[in-house]
Amino acid sequence: MSEPTMFSRTDRSHLATWWFTVDRVLLTAILVLVFVGLVLSLAASPAVAIKKGLAPFHFFERHLVFSALGVGLMLALSLLSPSHIRRIAASLLLVSLAGLVWVEIAGPVINGSQRWIYVGGVSLQPSEIAKPAAVMVLAWLFAEAVRRPDMPAVPIAVALGLILVGLLLVQPDVGQAMLVTTAWGALYLLAGLPIAGALILAALLSAGLVGAYLTLDHVRNRVNAFWAGDPEQNSQADRALQSFMEGGFLGRGPGEGTIKTHFPDAHTDYIFAVIAEEYGILACLLLAALFGLIVLKAMVVALDEPRAANRLAIQGLAIVFGMQALINMGVNVGLLPSKGMTLPFLSAGGSSILAISVTLGFLLAMTRRRADPARHMIHMMTSPDGPDQGPSRRMSPGPI
After folding, report:
1. Which neighbouring-strand residues pair with 122?
2. Burial, 398: exposed, middle or buried (Cβ in 10 Å; 0-12, 13-18, 19+)?
3. Closest of 71, 48, 70 to residue 58, by C-alpha
4. With 0-12 CB in 10 A as exposed, 13-18 as middle and 19+ as buried, what is 42?
5. Nearest-angstrom CA–CA distance, 13 and 68
6. Residue 13, SS3?
7. Where are the alpha helices (DSSP H) in 148-270?
8. Residue 376 CB: number of other CB atoms within 10 A?
9. Average pLDDT over residues 318-323
10. Cis omega (within 30 of 0) on the bond before 46?
11. What residues pair up with 188 in beta bridges, in sequence order?
């Protein structure tokens, strides 16, 4: 008996084509992550809202609205072809760079940093949208650098990286700058470009980190507190680590945690610690495995992608997504100094949820199965029985 589906194989509508070409493992894992984020927001955010004098479900309702908008945006982007995604990414990059400049001109200073702008009463963080957009553009530039050595793609990529990282550092946002720089270097190496360029980048990154430590007080204070382990200066990190010990393997139970009543950022930067206390280390490991599944599945799909620009884009988007999750979890377990980086789809924050939705919408679009005429022609020439009529990742219907 054939498996029932909502679409027929003979249906050639755009939506039916999407359904048969989208990577359903990735899609399912992402939707599970969104659902888990909503459940955890319901558990973690009321205590923070009450402490701030807001309605108990204020942050949960915001999380629900932005998650719904994010899923809609993600699915809409996943319908598009790689060429359309690249055009959208280039436009988003220009808009986000303009937003980063505007942040420096008129953005409010919050906790010593200028990272947000207000549009219609909603705060937005341009750096969040800049990350996936930059990955798409850089992937295309590095692919072109290999395909067309006469094109000055690498100098353009270097200039773009310097501009973006420079705008992030003046906010200052060292964590995002490190993430963008790492993604830049990873794409450079994955493109197969000369190793000397990567070594120069590593030296510049090291010099930048030293410079940030020497010139930015809040960076120096966080690093010093992290290495010293001073409970007075590093109280949030110490409490986060304590939550793992108090939660144990199975946790204290939903709603039974106390750490969220002490943390101003329990619903954002330290949501992973709340999960540890209430649901236990086992739940944290399952969440880490879910993030790992999304990254690993994307990387496996990239191995079968014949087009360099598409392959690099998939790898870069997966790296940015995975590293953001890894950095947040590393801060929560005390392996890294506080970075102010959210946990994708689990932390509250409209900009973060929408930016992750854009990232994963791009990823779903780039990993869809598409016809590869060159590969199909080779198969026809080498197979005595003609073209394979069975299912294949690259021979399924879908726009190139």
Report:
1. 119
2. middle
3. 48
4. middle
5. 25
6. coil
7. 153-169, 174-190, 195-215, 217-228, 235-247
8. 15
9. 96
10. no
11. none
Query: Could you report how far apart the first and last alpha carbons of the chain are, in Å?
Result: 32
CB atoms within 10 A of CB 387: 12
Q: What confidence tier does 235 reach under pLDDT thresholds 50, 70, 90?
A: low
pLDDT band at 218 (very low <50, low <70, confident <90, very high): low
Count of beta carbons in the 10 Å neighbourhood of residue 400: 11
Per-residue confidence at 224, pLDDT binned at 50, 70, 90?
low
pLDDT averaged over the chain? 81
Residue 288 is which amino acid?
A
> Is the pLDDT assigned to residue 39 strictly greater than 50?
yes
Higher pLDDT, 95 or 378: 95
d(Cα 31, Cα 22) in Å, to the nearest integer? 14
pLDDT over 50 at 247, yes or no: yes
* Average pLDDT estimate for 360-371: 90
Nearest to 305 by CA among 381, 379, 393: 393
Residues listed for the chain: 400
d(CA 136, CA 291): 21
Specify which residues 123 forms β-bridges with: 118
pTM: 0.84
CA dist., res. 316 & res. 322, Å (int): 10
Containing H/E element for 101? helix 82-106
